[in-house]
Prior knowledge:
Structural class: mainly alpha
CATH superfamily of the largest domain: Intergrase catalytic core
Order of helices and strands: HHHHHHHHHEEHHHHHH
Largest sheet: 2 strands, antiparallel
Subcellular location: Cytoplasm
Number of strands: 2
Number of domains: 2
InterPro entries: CB, DNA_brk_join_enz, Integrase-like_cat_sf, Integrase_catalytic, Integrase_recombinase_N, Integrase_SAM-like_N, Tyrosine_recombinase_XerC/XerD, Tyrosine_recombinase_XerCD
Pfam family, one: Phage_integrase
Region (Disordered): 1-29
CATH class of the largest domain: Mainly Alpha
Main location: cytoplasm
Amino acid sequence: MAGTAGVTPPTPAPPTAAPKPRAGGRLPDPADLAADDLVRAIQGWHAWLSHEKQASRHTRDAYARDLQAFLAFLAGHLGDRPGLADLEALTVADFRAWLAQRHAQGLQRTSTARALSTVRNFFAWTARNGLAQNAAVRVVRAPRLPRQVPKALTSEDMREVLRSVRDLAPDPWVAKRDIAVMLLLYGCGLRIGEALALTVQEAPSTRDAVLRVTGKGNKQRRVPLLPIVGQAVQAYLAACPHTLRPHDPLFLGVRGGPLSARRLQERLQQIRRRVGLSEATTPHALRHTFATQLLSAGGDLRAIQELLGHASLSTTQRYTAVDATGLTRVYDQAHPRAKG
């Protein structure tokens, strides 16, 4: 091309890795990644998520990581910390370059889809508040996700899990704690975050018939409480060596701090290696098992939706793909024409 002889094209900026938490688990300061006007916008968005949307701390941290990874990409892509004007000027090609970088980094499509949802959420907030308008972000397609079917355990698998807890826990009281948490997931269908958010004064007992649960969006629901679940929680409370006050977290770690979901994930990882269970045996799989066994026994899908705290029935309908045999049995027993 005329006029370009001897001219070396500029070297593109290297991909910028997602920001890592600072020491102590704190996220990077947005000021390290964005111009002052964008930092103020991010602070306003975080306040909106916390106070108006009432998003949980876990959700807010996940959103923060996703947005900061996007800003880290923009800083390398644009060559400087982006501001609000830079956000308005972004094109579909810029967003596709970000998605391509995530693909090149080997990030899962589910993670990228969630990150794109976070970025769209932030752009929608800036538009509503008159800070920045960008229509391109709504045009970009999210990666196609594989259809996820919940993985459920059999009744025998679940019994093996509970037996193995006693063998693997470092102390008897820790075994009682882990069993109590797992039974809340398996026997009541709680999310791991919901179980770990319970306080001492909310601890179920053998006298309680129902458990009040605070789920996503600060919504409350009531779930039936099996006697064995109340017994397990009370056994843990009697054995716990730490002082427990009414407003303290119900489940504590070995050192007396709040129990983290990671500890329970590690325990189940040990168990599945020990007894040869699938890698899908996670805390969330216990909740799936609760729903799947209810459905197999003929439970009403709407009732299961309420017990799980799903906002949409379509989420609960995923369980209909889990146990076709159970659904056929329910049909044969209940439909008036099935016996014809």
